[in-house]
Fold:
Amino acid sequence: MFVAGIDLGSATGKVVIMENDRVASTVVIRSTASPEKTAALAIEEAASKIGLKAVSDLEYIVGTGYGRSGVSFITENISEITCHAKGAHWLNPGIRTVIDVGGQDCKVISVNADGKVIEFAMNDKCAAGTGKFFEAMARTLDCSLDEFAALALRSGNPCSITKQCSVFAESEVITLINNGERQEDIAGGLIDSIVRRLLSMIYRVGAVPQVVLTGGCARNMALVKSLEVSLGIPVIRTKEDPQITGALGAALFAQAKALIQNK
Amino acid sequence: MNAQFKSTILQDFRKTAANPVNVSLQEWKKSGRKIIGCMYHYIPEEIITAAGMLPYRMKAVGSKGTELSESCFTQINCGFVRHLFDSGVRGELGFIDGLVSVNNCDHIRRFYENWQKKIKTPYMHFMPFPKKSGREQAEVYRKELADFKNSLEKHFNVQITDTKLKKAIELHNETRRLQRELYELRKKKNPPITGADVHAVMVASSSMPKEKYNTMLTGLLEELYTGEGISDYSERIMVVGGELDDPKFIEVIESQGCLVVADSLGYGYRAIAEDVDTDIEPLTALAEYHVLKRPACPRIFGTTFNRNDFVRHIAEEFKVDGVISVRLPLCDEWSFEQVNLIGYLKKHGIPHLTLDIDYILSSTGQIKTRSQAFLETISGTKHGR
Structure:
């Protein structure tokens, strides 16, 4: 029995296909202007990887992410907060705090021993502390997102950057460039400013170990390391790509729903 | 949601709530009678009714922006006063013949001063409202009410007798009684009306003649008693907050599958939980009602215990599974209240979510995500059922 979870984020669409409690296929693609199209493209690619004929071969599909409610072939939608908690818990049942830094928002989720959400905090409407912020700052530093993370990891003396608004932080970065600051230290300062932003949400919910970082930005090792230093506790690395955690949670819900349906 | 209504009463209430002006208001104005804008609650609308005028709770539903306000306010002022002032400058609230305000918060104080300077409504009156709830404060406010009554009489050349005041109090009490009857129906396992519709009914009461409103609400209640109940909902939710005059917000929450069955809102249960006393001198009764009797909002010092108790009492009485509290960004009074409520409700095992919402609802994606996640979190661990 194959089931799928689709996480339709603002920057990327993620699909996880599961077969009997095993991840059979995963895919991450750039989002298009239509969630329906992104979902169709992503699911087709994930299915073809394991020789399936896409939607018709899937027993149950759960959607999550900002585009979750507008896709015709999704059986049910579940919020990304619940899905990230479920996915992270499946990867490591000891996880109690999930920090999801996505393309347009970030969340801190407190999880119990059953993988259920106890409490959560979510950022406001602005792009502070999200992938969009990293993209804008990398553009200002004229580098790719990977180069941006590598630069920050080399920083020995991160600049102090106080603005967390993408637009105003950009002005602050331009001033630092003009003042002759090293690119590494500007990147390091930006990472620290985002971690401060995350900390304000983490303290609201509590940082109970074990802590995991999920979402696309979790691939940024400079962010992971800065967070570990600030929290004073290690951030767990999972065996699967942290970017697919939400889609994985959705697939796990799909699996449970399909089992109920087939009873 | 499957509530069906045969008549057009509910649609009329919805229309009234969704627009700054409505048919009843236009009819009132056409007949030569006056309308007095009331700035926020704690205004004794009964005095205006007794003067033969229509109390209109100021609102800026449908406002498109605040650009005309910006020169008069700073970045720390809330969206409510900015949108309202913008509507005022545009002339959209030009039907009011007077404006009466209390010093509810600093934003409203600045609003009143700016309105005085720029818009110049023919009659304006400002009443300092006590910061504390106590008998001494009620006596002080009674003097303010006497001043307000005298000033209305003088400016509009009317006479507000005790008999007229008593009659007005009875009329407004009748509105509150009918509204409480509406709330009683929400206690049912399958309430016959959605939370968004109830909110529209409540908001409509603030911009209609009370006689007409009471007749319409009586008609609606008759329909509701025989109507089908709503069963296709997941959780029962209570909404807590201050200024919320847009039923669309409740609609967005309910679009996630729950039913809003109770509230502690300025337009909601806090405004109707108690009646004004009819056995004592009318102005004293009105002052005591606003300062001592009605459930307070966080603006009034010394009421934290009662406020928390009120929320818990309503949550239990209406068998809610969770509480969503809302605040307009930059509202300091409700900011601290949210911190207070989180701790209090946590202590009593009542699930709670806080939301910041703009006065004019625009992007609803994040509200939906948070509400959906909250409902998913509380399903299975329902409180009080």
Q: What stands out?
A: The interface with chain B takes residues 66, 69, 78-82, 105, 116-120, 122, 124-125 of chain A (CB under 8 Å).
